[in-house]
Amino acid sequence: LALACAILAIPVASVQAEILGQSNAMVAGTEGYPVYRIPGFTVANDGSLLLFAEGRPNGGDPGGAGDIDMVYKRSTDGGQTWSPLSVLHQTNNFDYSDPRVVVDRNSGDIHLQYVQWPTNNGQAGVPVGLGSNSAVIYYQSSQDDGQTWSGPANINSQVKSPTWASLNTGP
User: How far apart are CA 113 and CA 98, in angstroms?
Assistant: First the structure.
């Protein structure tokens, strides 16, 4: 299994897209992870392709055995080649999931949000609150088209009510 990126050309006045190429960017069993799941993808203002995913130690969802890491790759040649895998967030006893990425087309800043869950305690089992034993939303940004990242910032107090148990960054 692989997370493949299809490079699309989408005419503005049309809903049809032409696939210009395809490449396997993250291949199961390579670069330290048996499974990659739940991709997030964007194109930076300089044309770089950015692919984010959960680097999973097994096929299980967050809450299963093993810590899930937030990983990414970057391509500067339209997806023909990809950078080596980089780990954006990895902490023992926690899973990181559901990357959501947005590019501010005016400033070029790239914004990434994702969720932290306690390992072995997925979405259905977290307690109410803003602590690390509950669901935690993290944010990172890049001001150089995805070459470097700010490092993780816990933004729970800004986006989550202390009366909530679970919160997710996307579907």
Answer: 8
How far is it, in rounded angstroms, from Cα 25 to Cα 75?
9
In the predicted structure, residue 107 carries a pLDDT above the cut 90 = yes
Please compute the mean of the pLDDT values over residues 38-51 and round it to a whole number. Answer: 96
CA–CA separation, 33 and 54 (whole Å): 9
Q: What percent of the chain lies above the pLDDT cut of 70?
A: 88
Position with higher pLDDT, 13 vs 35 = 35
* Cβ atoms < 10 Å from Cβ of 127: 12
Judge contact between 35 and 131, C-beta under 8 A.
Answer: no
Residues facing 54 on adjacent strands: 37, 70
Strand partners, 36: 55
- Which amino acid makes up residue 29? G
- Whole-number pLDDT of residue 123: 76
